[in-house]
């Protein structure tokens, strides 16, 4: 009888010992806890740095997209650009000759869609990047040459020139130009040339946007 009662008691003691041993194994020592905390802190710092980098990259992408959106919006708003003007707004007058090239100011504006042409300076300023077409027609009395040069930002592009010893003389030319926003186009009177204009408006300068790019 004593042997039978002792055996269950022994099992109970062994069970308590096993539980205490398992609990002791599961509980880390203070040094291990500090090490884990340090690892977690370092990991959080790395994650925060990655988040900061991603935020900066996203901000840069958003700014770039905004710039592109603004450009597209501007291009959509500036769909139509066209102008046409003659040299004199009234009366009759000769222009030239001069010993240097001067910008011709075509004062009588009949069309200026988009307001890209300035009748006070004679300069067309591109409001949007694209391909533009320009043409200029000039008239003289024949004693001197009639001539004008198309310029883009100070660069000589094409010339219209004609010289006869008698009667009136006329000349014209045209050009297709790829312009960036802010590029300037004008016609300069050729050195030594002279133009004659009247209420018939023989001397003209015109241009228009063909398509944007």
UniProtKB/TrEMBL annotation:
Name of the protein: C1q domain-containing protein
Where mainly located? secreted
Please tell me the species this chain comes from.
Answer: Neolamprologus brichardi
Which subcellular locations apply to this protein? Answer: Secreted
Work out whether the entry's keyword set contains Signal: yes
Q: What is the lineage of its organism?
A: Eukaryota, Metazoa, Chordata, Craniata, Vertebrata
Q: Does the keyword Thylakoid apply?
A: no
In the UniProt record, the signal sequence range is 1-21
GO CC terms = extracellular region
């Amino acid at each position: 009888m004593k042997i039978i009662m002792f055996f269950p008691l022994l099992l109970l003691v062994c069970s308590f010992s096993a539980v205490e041993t398992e609990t002791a194994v599961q509980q880390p020592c203070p040094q291990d806890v500090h090490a884990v905390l340090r690892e977690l802190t370092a990991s959080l710092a790395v994650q925060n740095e990655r988040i900061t980098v991603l935020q900066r990259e996203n901000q840069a992408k958003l700014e770039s997209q905004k710039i592109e959106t603004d450009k597209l919006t501007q291009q959509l708003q500036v769909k139509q650009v066209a102008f046409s003007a003659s040299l004199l707004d009234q009366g009759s007058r000769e222009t030239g000759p001069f010993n240097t090239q001067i910008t011709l100011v075509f004062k009588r504006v009949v069309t200026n869609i988009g307001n890209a042409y300035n009748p006070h300076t004679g300069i067309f300023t591109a409001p949007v990047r694209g391909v533009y077409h320009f043409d200029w027609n000039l008239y003289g009395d024949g004693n001197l040459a009639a001539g004008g040069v198309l310029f883009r930002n100070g660069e000589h592009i094409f010339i219209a020139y004609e010289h006869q010893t008698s009667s009136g003389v006329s000349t014209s030319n045209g050009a297709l130009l790829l312009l960036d926003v802010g590029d300037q186009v004008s016609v300069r009177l050729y050195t030594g040339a002279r133009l004659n204009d009247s209420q018939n408006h023989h001397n003209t300068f015109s241009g228009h946007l063909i398509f944007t790019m």
